[in-house]
Amino acid sequence: METETKDRQPTLSDRTYGWVNERFKLDALVEYMSGKVVPVHGHSAFYYMGGISLFLFIVQVITGILLLMYYRPGADSAYESVRFIVSEVEFGWLIRSIHSWSANLMILAVFLHMFTVYFTYAYRKPRELTWLTGIGLLGLALLFGFSGYLLPWNELAFFATRVGTGMAGAIPVFGKDILIVMRGGEEVTGATIGRFFGLHVAILPGLFTVLLAAHLIFIQRQGISEPLDWHALPESDKKHQKFFPSFLLRDLLVWLIVLNVIAVLAVLFPDGIGVVHWPLGVKADPFAPPPAVIRPEWYFMFAFQALKMLPAHILFIEGELFGILVFTVGGVVWTLVPFLDRGRAGDRSRYFMAFGWLVLAFIIVMTVVGYVVE
Prior knowledge:
Elements: H1 12-24, H2 26-34, E1 37-39, H3 48-68, H4 78-87, H5 92-119, H6 128-149, H7 155-169, H8 175-183, H9 190-222, E2 240-242, H10 243-268, E3 272-273, E4 276-277, H11 301-309, E5 313-314, E6 317-318, H12 319-335, H13 337-340, H14 350-372
Antiparallel strand pairs: 1-2, 3-4, 5-6
């Protein structure tokens, strides 16, 4: 029996891809992405931390835009607009909760990503710029948290911001000027909300997007780092998977899992839980006495507690200023680790490894002490 074959008719998706490909040469991009590989080993799960951080930033942007539709900055309108969002706007409480949970989880994911990169020596040549842009992204994420904390204009946020900005005033020579720029005056007022609002929704997102684009480009051009143990292995013993589509699909699956985790947390704990909480509380009153206990967000607690434990004076320097100087020097050293660690590929450095564990232990211990000791 004679069979008649016909060419398959192009579908709508085929025609759409062809139209876009003709103009933007997508085939070359797909071919390039298909050539990228990801190492497969016992610690491959750490490779997903960067993608989780990216996804949580995307959630931040989407929920932030939704909140922006109703939020009104100002001493007379900020608190009322947030209260309107959580009590009157349909699902407004859920969007605010998702925004808050994703903010905290993003900072946690960025911290975990940074330490996994550090302890696997993935900052070494040729990935120095990748490390520097990552540190910049962490700093911007912390500024996101600090600037967004004041925006509800409730009592706790007001006094915590006053303490936080006051630390900047302790810096010699330029401290007073920095404090005035941050607050928009001598005190935390409605002008401070305007400053923080502009920083939170315009300046920081722009800077973050530029750094993030550079960070992703560096990763794509240089590839994902291999474990140190692999430098002594022959190529035949190394196992890889294709970045596109294998690793990318797994990354998207992790994103879906994270989205479900955020949804569950937002529904069950809309105001947070334990030390991670953001109840609206009462409106800020500059003339009211401060709360008995003022604590920063958990990701600032280690620095806050360390400064609080210092004596009033250390030699001829004020204790708080001494602590700020130590944190500054430590931050500079941490940032410049790729240029200080001159170890060869495959070599471990016990000094830099000890330094990393010391920093991690300090953050954890000071954070725990900050919440245990009143």
